[in-house]
C-alpha cells in the first residue's frame, strides 16, 4: 500500500512540474509576441541630438543638449552638454514603462520616462531615487525628486510645437518652469569648436 501512495505522489508531482513548465513557456512566448520596443530606444533611433527647451529643475543653466554617443539592445550612452565647456556622459539601461535608468552609485539611481512624444519633441519625467545607507538588507529606493523637461529635435530647436507645450504644462502642473533654450544657443556649438 505504501508503494502505491509513493507512486501516486510522484506522478502528481511530475504532472505539476510539467504544468508549471508549460505555463512558463506559454507566458514567455506571449510576452515576446506582444512586447513593444522601449520608447527611448525608438526615440534615439530617430534622433542624434536633442535640446532642452524648458525644465522644472531650478538649476540655472542654458543651452542644454544631449547627444547620443552609443546604443545597443540593452541601453544607451548619452553625453549632456551645457553652454560651451561643461559636459558629462551617463550610461542608461532600457527598463519597463518606456523608461531608462542610470545607477550613479550604490545609493542613487536616476529614472527617465517618456510621457509624450510626437517625433520632433518629447516630454520627459525625471526622477532621482535614493537609498539610505543604514546597513539594512532592504534593496528599496525612495523617490527624492521629480522634474519634467521638454526636449526638441536638433532640427526644431527654438520652435516648440504647441502639442508639446500643452503636454509639458499638463505634466508639470503648477510647478515653476525655467526656459533653458535661448537665442544664444543657436550658435553655441560653433563657439566650442
Automatic annotation (TrEMBL):
Q: Which UniProt keywords apply?
A: Signal
> Which InterPro entries would you find in this protein's record?
Calycin
What organism is recorded for this protein?
Answer: Rhipicephalus appendiculatus (Brown ear tick)
Protein name (record): Lipocalin
Respond yes or no to whether keyword Signal is given for this record. yes
* Signal peptide positions (record): 1-19
Amino acid at each position: 500500500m505504501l508503494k502505491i501512495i509513493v507512486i501516486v505522489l510522484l506522478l502528481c508531482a511530475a504532472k505539476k512540474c510539467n504544468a508549471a513548465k508549460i505555463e512558463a513557456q506559454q507566458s514567455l512566448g506571449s510576452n515576446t509576441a506582444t512586447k513593444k520596443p522601449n520608447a527611448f530606444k525608438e526615440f534615439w533611433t530617430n534622433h542624434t541630438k536633442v535640446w532642452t527647451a524648458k525644465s522644472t529643475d531650478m538649476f540655472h543653466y542654458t543651452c542644454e543638449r544631449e547627444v547620443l554617443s552609443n546604443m545597443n539592445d540593452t541601453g544607451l550612452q548619452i553625453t549632456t552638454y551645457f553652454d560651451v565647456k561643461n559636459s558629462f556622459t551617463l550610461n542608461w539601461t532600457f527598463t519597463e514603462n518606456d523608461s531608462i535608468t542610470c545607477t550613479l552609485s550604490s545609493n542613487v539611481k536616476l529614472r527617465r520616462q517618456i510621457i509624450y512624444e510626437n517625433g520632433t519633441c518629447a516630454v520627459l519625467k525625471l526622477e532621482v531615487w535614493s537609498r539610505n545607507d543604514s546597513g539594512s538588507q532592504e534593496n528599496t529606493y525612495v523617490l527624492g525628486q521629480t522634474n519634467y523637461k521638454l526636449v526638441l529635435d536638433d532640427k526644431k530647436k527654438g520652435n516648440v510645437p504647441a502639442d508639446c507645450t500643452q503636454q509639458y504644462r499638463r505634466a508639470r502642473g503648477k510647478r515653476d518652469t525655467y526656459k533653458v533654450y535661448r537665442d544664444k544657443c543657436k550658435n553655441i556649438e560653433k563657439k566650442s569648436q
